[in-house]
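Input record, target 12 of the design panel.
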């Protein structure tokens, strides 16, 4: 049983990578964090992609403090 859970996780993630590949997310290098995030959540969603889940990250704007002049 202890070997089954890691195997299922690996298979789940492989299915997610296949789904991302079928959506052509790997054709070009990610240009921003939204694209990278969409690829990541697609992989994490795994087989759910084939049941209508289409995760997308619209924006990941992060306010980074700027140094004082």
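The sequence produced for target 12 reads:
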């Amino acid at each position: 049983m202890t070997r089954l859970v890691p195997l299922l996780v690996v298979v789940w993630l492989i299915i997610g990578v296949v789904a991302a590949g079928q959506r052509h997310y790997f054709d070009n290098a990610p240009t921003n964090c939204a694209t990278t995030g969409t690829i990541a959540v697609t992989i994490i969603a795994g087989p759910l992609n084939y049941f209508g889940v289409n995760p997308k990250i619209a924006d990941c704007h992060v306010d980074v403090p700027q140094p004082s002049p």
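The chain is about 45% helix and 0% strand.
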